[in-house]
Amino acid sequence: MQFDRIGDFEDPRIGDYQNLKEVRLAVDRRRFMVEGRVNLRVLLEHSTFAPDSILLSDRARATMEEELVSLAPTCPVYVANQAVLDRIVGFPIHRGCLAACRRPEGLDPMALARDLLEVEAAPRIVVVENITNHDNMGGIFRNAMGLGGRAVLLCPRSVDPLYRKAIRTSMGGSLVLPFARTADLAQLLDALRKLGFEILALDPAPESVDLDGLVAREIGPVALLLGTEGPGLSEMALALADRRVRIAMESGVDSLNVSVAAGIALHRLRVQDSDTKKSGLSVGCAGSE
């Protein structure tokens, strides 16, 4: 395939890569950046997102030629030496591989939930409140992708899953797992319950139900509600939960990292694909913001 050589950082063809401040990318350019070969492979092979362009080092180009063959002819692939790449972010953290993607319009969270119920009898979705750490957001997506979570719904204050660091930490999970943001968490939780989802709030309080006592096959659609580390879920969110559940821990330990807790809970709630699908359909992977 055709590769375009870039010899100058100021080359206008790589304008999307010359200022990687997340706010400018998201708001001014309606773009997000995918970093690293693992995430680029996920983007090309499993995501509904498509890159507008790709920028590679010579080494990355040599190792990814087979995957790049499937690219649309309208997607240019630029190749630059390491000195040019280092100037893009100021220091070499991107491992010679970046892709610029266009942000789609946001999904409607309730439409997403209804679509899941059309194809699965008991989907597991994750609802997050005030997750403001990009590593934690990425970890939640990574665990959801691997442990049967079908979507992530975000409150207004939670961070962007398409932030470069969140994508990197998610190992591409936020590129394949559908997500949507609500303007009102209380209204969302109420609407999910009316739709048939049981709201399970992860809360370490002693009065919460032990997660080990739940039998996944006996539980229908679930919205697993996660709060930020430290304060945890708000009183409003806890009040709207159908049940509060906790993870049994060693004496003297009061909490776990939220992404770790999400992984444990999703694993406990996971049911086999053959038990959840309706009419042989499968849930497609998509993402939005």
Give me a quick take on this structure.
With 289 residues, the chain is α/β, with parallel strands linked by helices. The protein contains twelve helices and twelve strands. It has two domains: 4-102, 60s Ribosomal Protein L30, Chain: A, CATH 3.30.1330; 109-276, SPOUT methyltransferase, trefoil knot domain (Alpha/beta knot), CATH 3.40.1280.
Per-chain topology:
Layout: E1 4-6, H1 22-28, E2 31-35, H2 37-46, E3 51-56, H3 58-68, E4 77-80, H4 82-89, E5 97-102, H5 109-119, E6 124-129, H6 134-146, E7 149-154, H7 164-170, H8 173-176, E8 179-181, H9 185-195, E9 198-202, E10 209-210, E11 222-227, H10 235-239, E12 243-246, H11 258-269, H12 273-276
Parallel strand pairs: 1-4, 3-4, 6-7, 6-11, 7-8, 9-11, 9-12, 10-12
Antiparallel strand pairs: 2-5, 3-5
Q: Please tell me the CATH architecture of the largest domain by its name.
A: 3-Layer(aba) Sandwich
As for the CATH topology of the largest domain, it is: Alpha/beta knot
Highest CATH level, the class of the largest domain: Alpha Beta
Distance between the termini: 32 Å
Low-confidence stretches: 279-289
Read across the widest sheet, the strand sequence of neighbours is: 8-7-6-11-9-12-10
Estimate what percentage of residues fall within beta strands: 15-25%
CATH superfamily label of the largest domain: SPOUT methyltransferase, trefoil knot domain
Give the number of DSSP strands. Answer: 12
Q: Roughly how many Å is the radius of gyration?
A: 20 Å
In helices, the fraction of residues equals 25-40%
Largest sheet: 7 strands, parallel
Number of helices: 12
Number of domains: 2
